Description:
The protein is mainly beta and 291 residues long. It is 9% helix and 46% strand.
Amino acid sequence: xxxxxxxxxxxxxxxxxxxxxxxxxxxxxxxxxxxxxxxxxxxxxxxxxxxxxxxxxxxxxxxxxxxxxxxxxxxxxxxxxxxxxxxxxxxxxxxxxxxxxxxxxxxxxxxxxxxxxxxxxxxxxxxxxxxxxxxxxxxxxxxxxxxxxxxxxxxxxxxxxxxxxxxxxxxxxxxxxxxxxxxxxxxxxxxxxxxxxxxxxxxxxxxxxxxxxxxxxxxxxxxxxxxxxxxxxxxxxxxxxxxxxxxxxxxxxxxxxxxxxxxxxxxxxxxxxxxxxxxxxxxxxxxxxxx
Length: 291
Ligand SMILES: [Zn+2]
């Protein structure tokens, strides 16, 4: 599923356990993950076992993820940190192999600070400081998004590297410290890609449409569930061309680029979420091409 060349693995942890009761059997589980990761960057974790894996529970950043083993001896999944919600410092990754002879391994990953540039944008007053009349709408939409992004579906559809949803270059990178009309707002938790009004927008990876809605800040937005807590989000669309519940392939058109919501012009905002943490999608597009 995963392209291991995309990301750099440096840490190996091996754990030996004696099965209670028999005392004869030593089970083994090996964990591969980065030792150090820049804040906001996604990374792949690989777990190998000498016995078929039933299911795993992964604990990371105060969240937990259920990963089906499906009888295989190795599984991979994506984790990451969020420029807004995570903090630099050591973060514990714990993987528990559930089943008849449970095993657990844990390690510490150093989340490194990164410096992000400032970006100053001018938008309409009601987009910089929403009037009281729309606060309820914004709160309701935030709750809807949180509910969608907190699901960890067991079917893993994710294919890496991600496919570019539009051909345009990056116009605003992940992590920018943003000021709207001079007022500091949340950091940019996605990637803006250049797109003209009406350009087709394509799914970055296979998955299921779990939300297609018109939101105050995001405008017309599509959320795709790729399984195991991973989602891609496409915002500011002129038109949505999929419906909630649809399964889509990588490269399938999901809508047309536009300038709905809080924007200064037409573009595509692409978000990548892992366990409700907004991570930088760029690392999963560009590393292979060396861009
Ligand atoms: Zn954006």
